[in-house]
Amino acid sequence: MEITVKYYNLVAAATGKTSEKISWSEVGRQGEGITLKEILNFLTRKYGAALARLVFRAPGELNTGLLILADGRLLTQEGGEVLNQVIPAGAELVLLLAVAGG
User: Fold this and answer.
1) What is the Cα–Cα distance from 4 to 35, expressed in whole angstroms?
2) How far apart are CA 55 and CA 65, in angstroms?
3) In the beta sheet, which residues pair with residue 19?
4) Dist CA 79 CA 100 (whole Å)
5) Which residues contact 52 (CB under 8 A, 6 or more apart)?
6) pLDDT digits (tens, 9 = 90+) for 77-100
7) What is the per-residue pLDDT for 28?
8) What separation in angstroms does the CA of 73 have from each of 11, 32, 68, 88, 91?
9) Please, how many CA atoms are within 13 Å of residue 19, restricted to the half-sphere of its CB?
10) Do β-strands 73-74 and 66-70 pair in parallel, antiparallel, or remain unpaired?
11) What is the rounded CA–CA span in Å between residue 98 and residue 66?
12) Cβ-based neighbour number of residue 20 at 10 Å
């Protein structure tokens, strides 16, 4: 089982990729779904401090500027339990930072 993760803007720069497929076995998980927290922890271990600074403000606390979409649904506007959201096999996850400017 696997998911597709797409990276945009600063997140893509931190990973050096625009997308990749992640399998449950890479994350060390079995079963039907995997939590967003497990995915993000795996990615920050894989890509290191540069990505961790973009994803988390503090351990276990998401950066409020990070936008996370699962199959087109914006998860980061769903409140405090977002890290416990189960991401099903076959899902497409999108990670990007909100940017402003003029």
Assistant:
1) 14
2) 9
3) 6
4) 22
5) 44
6) 766 688 999 999 999 999 999 887
7) 78
8) 19, 20, 8, 13, 11
9) 9
10) antiparallel
11) 6
12) 15
Which pair of tokens denotes residue 51? 């990505």
Structure tokens at 49: 């401090």
Q: Report pLDDT digits (tens) over 20-79.
A: 999 988 887 777 778 999 999 999 999 999 999 999 988 888 998 999 999 999 998 766
- Dihedral-angle region of residue 40 (phi above 0 means left; psi in -120 to 50 means alpha; beta otherwise): alpha
Residue 95 bridge partners (DSSP): 7, 68
Contact (Cβ atoms closer than 8 angstroms) between residue 42 and residue 27: yes
Backbone angles phi, psi at 94, to 5 degrees: -120, 130
Contact 27, 35 (CB under 8 A): no
Write out the H or E segment, with its range, that includes residue 10: helix 9-15
Distances, alpha carbon 47 to alpha carbons 43, 72, 81, 85, 89, in Å? 6, 24, 24, 22, 22
Q: Would you state the pLDDT for residue 78? A: 62
Report if pTM > 0.70: yes
